[in-house]
Amino acid sequence: MAHHNDFGKIAENLAAEYLQKNGYKILVSNFRFQKAEIDIIAEKDNLIIIVEVKARSTDAFMLPQEAVTKTKIKSIVSAANHYLEEFNKDNEVRFDIISVLPDENRNLKIDHITDAFQALDAN
């Protein structure tokens, strides 16, 4: 497995731990629908939280959350709709991004961006 894949997995695990420590219940990780994948689906306060985890080893070129393009948003929204239908969920949905970057001491830091985008942004 390539180093960036390992780092991505570490970031997803770190994000899941962060969410759990902050009162979120993880419903599923790496939910796939067609070619789309949702990194984490969680629940808190009767909301379904769709979480895209973005990790970078540096922010020299762009912040991790800037890598979530309109195409990626459409893909996430499509997979989220499928999840809601498949599991008969009628909760309100929120889309979050968790970015993971190393700080100057190489410690990984999390930036949790709640309500990062709306399903309407995909249009």
TrEMBL record:
<dbReference type="InterPro" id="IPR011856">
    <property type="entry name" value="tRNA_endonuc-like_dom_sf"/>
</dbReference>
<dbReference type="GO" id="GO:0003676">
    <property type="term" value="F:nucleic acid binding"/>
</dbReference>
<protein>
    <recommendedName>
        <fullName>UPF0102 protein FW781_20335</fullName>
    </recommendedName>
</protein>
<comment type="similarity">
    <text>Belongs to the UPF0102 family.</text>
</comment>
<dbReference type="Pfam" id="PF02021">
    <property type="entry name" value="UPF0102"/>
</dbReference>
<dbReference type="InterPro" id="IPR011335">
    <property type="entry name" value="Restrct_endonuc-II-like"/>
</dbReference>
<dbReference type="InterPro" id="IPR003509">
    <property type="entry name" value="UPF0102_YraN-like"/>
</dbReference>
